[in-house]
Amino acid sequence: MPKLCVNIDHIATVREARKTTEPDPILGAKLAILGRADGITVHLREDRRHINDRDVLLLSQSIKGHLFTLEMAATDEMLDISSKVKPALVTLVPEKRQELTTEGGLNAIGQKKYLSDYLRKLHSNNLTVSIFINADKEQIKTAKDIGADFVEIHTGPYAENPNEKEFNIVKEAVFFAQGLGLKTNAGHGLNYQNTKPIAQIPNIEQLHIGHSIISRAVMVGIKEAVKEIKDLINL
């Protein structure tokens, strides 16, 4: 079965809404691991809208022994940060300032020369590299050509419309990538209703799931949180 890597970006989103210190994504990561997460994923964006540099550094130090994936754009700044932090996996993703979340896979074909040089620099720093990519055979082939170790298949279209056709597109992309010798991950939009079929595709290494887990945690944990502060008030 694939490993579960929990994306904790939205714990930091709540923190940044008030520019305070809580909720603490580092504590959230530790609790996720106590819940049997195999790893933690964060996206360090250019605008630092949620996860910040300090979070990345503390996570790299505090969850040793578990998978730590750093999602990032292919920029000079992120090359420097990832080379210092040394996450278990770097996942290159497209990034637009105005988007709410990542809107699609990286266009490896359109940036083939640049990405080939960029991956060479990452590899020279002993980093393992994945590319978040649409379920498109030409894009996957290009990811292989430029030296990616993994591809993470974008499951957004399936998650939005989880029917047999969309599922088969994901499955065929996974099998195609594996046939090229690429390790495969999957993620984006996966939730408690649509994850199981994806998890059953053979030899997917990791599932990266965030928003649905954090959303669920808000609901199933609020009763206990209210009870705890009520008990304090009634002391």
What descriptive keywords fit this protein?
10 helices; TIM Barrel; alpha/beta; globular; 235 residues; eight-stranded parallel beta barrel
Summarize the structure.
With 235 residues, the chain is α/β, with parallel strands linked by helices.
Give unreliable regions as ranges.
none
Share in β-strands: 15-25%
Count up the domains: 1
Which structural class matches the secondary elements?
alpha/beta
Shape: globular
Q: Radius of gyration in whole Å, from Cα?
A: 18 Å
Between the first and last Cα atoms, what is the distance in angstroms?
47 Å
Q: What would CATH call the homologous superfamily?
A: Aldolase class I
- Figure out the total of helices: 10
CATH topology: TIM Barrel
How would you sum up this structure, described in words?
It is a single chain. With 235 residues, this protein is an alpha/beta fold. The chain has a single domain (3-210), classed as Aldolase class I (TIM Barrel, Alpha-Beta Barrel), CATH 3.20.20.70. It has 10 helices and 8 strands. An 8-stranded parallel beta barrel has the order 1-2-3-4-5-6-7-8, surrounded by 6 helices. Helix 3 links the parallel strand 2 (39-43) and strand 3. It is globular and about 65 Å long. The model has no long low-confidence stretch (mean pLDDT 95).
Secondary-structure blueprint:
Elements: E1 3-7, H1 9-18, H2 25-34, E2 39-43, H3 53-62, E3 67-72, H4 76-85, E4 89-92, H5 112-124, E5 129-133, H6 137-145, E6 150-154, H7 156-160, H8 164-179, E7 183-187, H9 195-199, E8 204-209, H10 211-233
Parallel strand pairs: 1-2, 1-8, 2-3, 3-4, 4-5, 5-6, 6-7, 7-8
Helix pairs in contact: 2-3
